[in-house]
Design a protein that fits this description.
- This protein is α/β, with parallel strands linked by helices.
- It is globular and about 45 Å long.
- The protein contains eleven helices and eight strands.
- 46% of the residues lie in helices and 18% in strands.
- A hairpin with a 2-residue loop joins strand 1 and strand 2.
- It has one domain: Alpha/Beta hydrolase fold, catalytic domain (Rossmann fold).
Length: 269
């Protein structure tokens, strides 16, 4: 995998496809491969550049306080180091939060925003859930096992567990196959999640944005949709009715088709 030095750290990334650049920012505890189901389709029309955030994958994991604004600074510096002047920016959950900060601080770098399962400010509910993940990660001494036991149930509906247990198992096997995030790095990333507040920055976002949520998502539910839709001026909202936090895995074909339609519209604009 190629690596570049940016913002005083080494950032690992993967590049596939051809066309306008599309940067994919991972969610909490994940590396660039988390969007494999999307890149397989998007790379037919875009140059997909999937990064490992600070603290995850094969990017550096320095000590110190992390913030989502810092992740955005890292991605902006990465773009400069990689020679990407402007790109479509895509992210789910932590990736969406990072993308909002990026678009607010570096508007000239962002052609469009794909914000999936995002949220504006961490509330008491999210803090409670994430604190539980931290306790589990420390108790198990394993971030991959914590993801499978504690994060998965927030990402997928009970119906998916019941209908496709072998698929859930394949996703668990995938998580175990990736570079394991150290517990200390997970704590740094998840502390950044708990501190997240982009409310004051939303009005600075000028790029056209697609906002998507899973109707069954409790974590970053549609309770955040109004604030995002009203403050991100050029935004459109899409709800995946039968999904929880991760439509990218639960309704892969529908998710890819509807999000690619938005991306192609922005590429043509």
């Amino acid at each position: 995998m190629p690596k570049v030095k940016a913002n005083s750290i080494t950032i690992n990334y993967d590049q596939q496809g051809s066309g306008e650049p599309l940067i994919l920012i991972p969610y909490l505890a994940a590396d660039h491969a988390c969007y494999a189901f999307q890149v397989a389709e998007y790379a037919k029309r875009f140059t997909c550049v999937s990064v490992d955030l600070r603290g995850a994958g094969e990017s550096d994991k320095p000590e110190g306080r992390y913030s989502i604004e810092l992740f955005a600074d890292d991605v902006a510096a990465f773009m400069g180091a990689a020679g990407i002047e402007k790109a479509h920016i895509f992210g789910l959950s932590l990736g969406a939060a990072t993308a909002m900060w990026l678009a607010a601080k570096y508007p000239d770098k962002v052609k469009s925003l794909s914000l999936h399962s995002g949220w504006t400010k961490t509330d008491a509910f999210i803090k409670t859930v994430v604190a539980g993940w931290q306790i589990t990660a420390k108790a198990l001494a394993s971030v991959p096992e914590m993801i499978i036991q504690s994060i998965f149930p927030w990402c997928f509906t009970p119906e998916l567990y019941a209908a496709k247990p072998e698929y859930i198992q394949s996703l668990a096997d995938f998580v175990r196959s990736r570079p394991a995030q150290p517990v200390a790095a997970f704590l740094q990333q998840s502390n950044a999640v708990m501190d997240h507040d982009v409310n004051a920055q939303l009005g600075r976002i000028t790029a056209p944005a697609q906002l998507t949520f899973g109707r069954q998502d409790l974590l970053t539910s549609t309770r955040f949709a109004d604030a995002m839709k009203s403050h991100i001026r050029r935004s459109e909202l899409l709800i995946f009715e039968e999904c929880a936090h991760a439509p990218i895995y639960e309704k892969v074909e529908e998710f890819n088709q509807k999000t690619l339609t938005f991306l192609l519209r922005q590429a043509a604009a």
